[in-house]
Design brief:
The structure is a single chain. 32% of the residues lie in helices and 32% in strands. It contains five helices and seven strands, in the order βαααβββαβαββ. A hairpin with a 2-residue loop joins strand 2 and strand 3.
């Protein structure tokens, strides 16, 4: 895919678009993983509330939401929590590309842009993210980018159930440029 992209930091006005893409991504990636009743019901309002809190009210600060946009609008986004963990470094809390565009290389571009921001911030210990153990496509993507999976931990998800999740770490080296 040869889509021209630009990156910018999200503001309060971007909360609805981010929430909409987040919900669409979860419906696509988590069908059969999270509860269908949640994906088909409360997901939209729950994601809207989350991104309103984060982008309008400043909850979970400090965080930075990097938008990836093309000629037709939002293509993807990543949420970076720079002070998430002293041992593992910054946390990429969300990494989502429009489900219709998966496999186009946009995820790699987005990861590369996030990694550049992490490097520019002076973080030296690497960075990490969490992935549902059952999200095999995302796990394969992160492995291709040089991520290393650690032992699973159980996390409660917004659908009310607890699922095994893996911390994926990148220590030092740039994953997207490797």
């Amino acid at each position: 895919m040869n889509t021209e992209v630009r990156f910018r930091i999200a503001g309060a006005a971007d909360a609805p678009a981010v929430a909409q893409l987040h919900a669409a991504s979860w419906r696509s990636a988590y069908r059969g993983v999270l509860r269908d009743a949640y994906l088909d019901g409360a997901l939209d309002s729950e994601r809207a509330a989350l991104w309103h809190e984060r982008l309008v009210k400043g909850a979970d600060a400090p965080l930075e939401v990097l938008l990836m946009e093309g000629p037709r609008g939002l293509l993807g986004f990543g949420c970076l929590c720079p002070d998430a963990d002293p041992a593992w470094g910054p946390l990429i809390d969300n990494l989502h590309v429009d489900p219709a565009l998966r496999g186009s290389g946009l995820g790699r571009q987005l990861m590369g842009a996030l990694q550049q921001r992490i490097t520019a911030s002076g973080a030296t210990q690497g960075f990490h993210l969490w992935v549902l153990e059952a999200n095999l496509a995302a796990r394969a993507f992160y492995r291709r980018l040089g991520g290393r999976e650690l032992e699973p931990e159980h996390h409660e998800m917004p659908d009310g159930a607890t699922y095994p999740c893996l911390r994926v770490v990148w220590q030092g080296a740039a994953p997207a440029s490797a």
